[in-house]
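Notes from the pairing session

We agreed to fold both candidates in a single pass and log them together. This is the raw record for the first candidate, unedited. Please don't reformat it; downstream parsing expects exactly this layout.

Candidate A
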Amino acid sequence: MKIAISTTVKNLDSSFNTWVQYHLTLVDQLFVFCDNHVELQLPFLPKASNIHYFPGSQTRLYDSPIDNNMVRQDENIQQTVKACLDMGIDWLIHIDMDELMCATRLELEVLFCNPAVGQVLFTNHEAIPVWASDNVFEDCRYFKVNGQHNRWSHDPWFFLAYVNGKGAGRVHPGLCSIGPHQFGNIKGETLKYLPKPFVLHYPNCTFDLWKRKYENLGVFSDFWFSDPNKPNTITFYMASRDVYQQCVKTGDFTEAEAFFNRLIPPPELMEQLVAQGILMKLDPLRKLAPHGSPVYEA
């Protein structure tokens, strides 16, 4: 069985080396699409025969970068599927550069070997931010457990981003993506949200990353694809947009710092929430150590 991952990337830093090293322990091929084509020349990009870099789609159909990014990801997946067919890849996982597939190779093969299954939707859990880090994959160890939002009371937001998981699809000529979370035109049934394996999501994980994201996104709409019938229900996005834009107007980012800092619970509270099952504490990079193996507990 051959397994691949496809991702679209932008604003890369050296932590991408960790992302690549980690996922090459799980899959046979990586397909990386650089949204900013200049980044194809970055000197620190890891090189190997099973890492394939491409200039990403540049389609722009909407005013919002968020919406355009989803369209571009779909087009990049179309190109990936063609490459997978040429290379005899059996399964394709679609994740982002701020996500880790928390699994063992054996777990993936067990899921994917069932000929009746055409898609797997993995549950996602979300990292709690830290104020600053050179590598959030190393420094973020606490994760909000999907489905525990009703028990969360630290601040207005439990998950800062999506809750509906990420997907893997069995490769065949008609496979396509329907947005960043699932595949379309699948052949077979869909397995949904099994306890393991799962995806770890690291959104907005430092103050600087948060600032850079909302600088790049600008003044985007409250609706997906500028459609009033499709409200963006991820309210943290709009709150972040508004706080960031207000600070830009005044030139004072004190309010933004306070806004972000309240997303980080004190250590003693996080340990209590781990004991209650609202958070989990993980060290997924342990499997990169000599003789290490994937773990679900730190």
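Candidate B (folded immediately after A)
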Amino acid sequence: MSAPGFAFDLLARSGAARRGRITCAHGTVQTPAFMPVGTSATVKALRPEDLRAAGAEMILANTYHLMLRPGAEVIEELGGLHRFMNWPGPILTDSGGFQLMSLSKLRKITDSGVTFRSHIDGAMVELTPEGAVDIQRRLDADITMVLDECTAYPATEEEAAKSMRLSMTWAARSKEAFVARPGYGLFGICQGSVYAELREESAKALTALGFDGTAIGGLAIGEGQGVMLATLAATLAHLPKDAPRYLMGSGTPTDLIGAVALGADMFDCVLPTRSGRTGKGFTRRGEINIRNARHARDPRPLDTDCACPACAGYSRAYIHHLFRNDEMLGGMLLSAHNVHFYQDLMAALRDAIEADQFAAVAEDWRATLALGDVEAL
């Protein structure tokens, strides 16, 4: 059962793909939805105005980074994360489990929680399920994530089972600590690595606890697309159909198409902006590297099918020039284009589901993405 004022409406289906709408404290989110990642209360190189213009409705911020700097109490004192970063729309905050996995040499995990050494100043910090939930309340996140241990890949079945069961214990404690407020939701996180039986056990445990939505964690961390999608399918089979399903940390355009086809509703990934800062652009014909010399005299936009400001006003030659001269505008323009591309993809998939044409539209996108870029004549 959803928290008061927090709702998920399933509007249409096309095969297993779902078209829905999430209503929360700071607005609505049309699904399938891609959330740009604003780890430290900023989506790198982009203003909130750029995100809204691209079509983004919800963004992600990270509990781990914000608790260390500037601190949850500072953000709370300044009116919450929405006011702090000038983003009026919905925000989801990751509890920090993924970051704690990456700090494996600096952390100690017990039944109580995680003690880790800050990557900023070396100070020892403790994070418990209750503490993670309270920090996200202070941040004023529309969607709070339970604290989990993101199981590393690869892991043996025994290691994955131990990790998953600890996360389920933490999920129960997170649920108990969550303060219900109108329009605010709490999501559980399903773990179990690539083992279908463990994923089923985790999904059933979370369903019994009763969350407003469920995230699928521990994927897109090196297992490959085929294994990821197979594990996702095995997990979704055991999740509630009347609540959002969120695949964490994925991914490429074809990852998203494949996951939507299976019935996932929400996604996030640093790929659009990280790629944009390093010269990689996403287009309907696949990826391009704008640093390549062949773009130096190319008057065309990044993508002739894109209406974003970068494509409307700037040539490949100019953006290539910016990158060759280490001008920050290059990364800004390419990041803005990539975010716009991802939002266009999700809008196209939503429209296809509404028209019950998802399979055909998805196949068309896969085919054009595989064609490869065409050089200028």
